[in-house]
Structures are given as structure tokens and as C-alpha cells.
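Quick one: co-fold with adenosine-5'-triphosphate.
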Amino acid sequence: MSVKIKVENLNAWYGRNHVLKDINIEIKANKITAIIGPSGCGKSTFIRCLNRLHEVVPGAQVKGHVWVDGQDLYALGVDPTEVRHRIGMVFQKPNPFPTMSIFENVAVGVRIHGLKPGVKLEEIVERSLRMAALWEEVSDRLYTSGVSLSGGQQQRLCIARALAVEPEVLLLDEPCASLDPISTLKIEDLLVELKKNYTIVIVTHNMQQAARVSDYTAFLLDGELVEYGPTPEIFTRPQDKRTEDYITGRFG
Ligand SMILES: Nc1ncnc2c1ncn2[C@@H]1O[C@H](COP(=O)(O)OP(=O)(O)OP(=O)(O)O)[C@@H](O)[C@H]1O
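Sure, here it is.
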């Protein structure tokens, strides 16, 4: 099974607050990896280091390596914008651009990065909306506002927007936190479908969700990676007492 992202001795700080401590992990290609752990343990910071978004916070610092297909994203001369193009991100709260139509919300990144010759924008928008399992619901109202959609639809729109620029990896930071159970299941089904073509890393507070959708689970505690392995093993035979305590609800 091939490794898509190799993280080596990753450390991250906000000012003097050392929030990620020597993280080493190999994230497998075309699998869903769930990042779990109590509030404040560093889950969001970790995935934001995977596409160099952490460093946009004033005073934030990163040390270590993140290799994607053998390229170190933190090597000198690597363009962070290009990294974020390759490694897309979906946030906790659906955040379609409020003044843009559904069509424009999906097209915006492609317009910025430039359309490949011979490719039609309409085709990219339709393909992305289909991949995000939203096309059937919006194909007759593409030019209405993105924020006219329900929360679950807005989140799928944000996934379509992330997919439109053809990333290799999709990072999702608690994408279902503000959604109802039906919308949540739709997103989960979608992720399982998308892993055929993408490597997916999802931060979740929801243990059932991690168990339902992920192939691998990483448990973070106080900025350290306590345990990482195939999801069924983490949930049924955790090696570390702290993992067991967390997944059985003793803390967090
Ligand atoms: N922008 C920021 N500026 C300063 N400190 C921050 C910032 N964002 C996060 N932190 C701190 O970094 C630590 C890790 O936060 P992070 O958001 O990565 O945790 P998390 O596990 O994702 O938490 P949650 O589950 O509550 O979202 C916390 O101590 C938090 O207070």
C-alpha cells in the first residue's frame, strides 16, 4: 500500500505555545485517515501543517518535514500557494462565497489557477458537482446564490469547490460538525466514494464517524501522536491505555 504523505518530526507553535510535538506518521494513498483526540490537542493545527496553512497565522511556526509523493512541502523554494492547490481543504463551517452563485463558487479556484487549454469551465463545474453528489440537486439553479442552499448542500458545494482545482489530497476539518444526521451520512458516503481518487484526512470529534468512514485512525493527545493504525484495531484493540480511555469516553 503506497504512502501519500510522510510526516517527519513535525513540530508546530503558536508563539511560544508548542502545540505539535515530534509527529511522525505515514498517511496512505487512497485511504481515509481520521484524526481524533480531545479538544485543543492539535488536530486542526496538524492538518493545517499538511497544506502549509498553519504558517499564515501571525507568530505561528513549523519545523520538520511533510513529504507528499517524495516532495518536501517545507523545502526551500516550494510555493505555499501551489501546495494548497495540490492539497485542498474543507472547513468545519460551510463557507461558500456569499456574493457568488453556485456555479461561480465552484469555478472560482479554476479561474484563479487558470483553465487548461481545451477544457470548458462548464464541464469542470458539472464534474465537480457530480463528484460532490450535488449536481442532481442544483443543476436547474446554478446561477442562484451559493448561500441559498441548505447547510449540508453548502458543505457539498465547498467540497465541489475544493475538487474543481483537481487536488491530490483532501483535508477536512470536522466537516459535519454543523450538519444534521442525514446530511452527515451523505458527506460520509461521499468521502467513501471520493477515496477511490483522493487521499483523505478528516478531523472528527465524532468517534462513530471515525469508525464508520476511516481506514486508519490517529489519536492525538496534548500535541503528541499517541497511537496510529487501522481503524478497527484502534477501536477494538488499542495498544495504549490513553487511547482506550479516550475511545471509551473516559475523557475528552
Ligand atoms: N490561531 C491560534 N492562535 C493561537 N493559538 C492557537 C490558535 N489556534 C489554535 N491555537 C492553540 O493551539 C492548540 C491546538 O489547537 P487546535 O485547534 O489545533 O486543536 P484541536 O484539537 O483541533 O481542537 P478542537 O477539537 O477544539 O477544534 C490549542 O491550545 C489552541 O488554543
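If it helps, The pocket of adenosine-5'-triphosphate is lined by residues 14, 17, 19, 37, 39-45, 57, 205 (CB under 6 Å).
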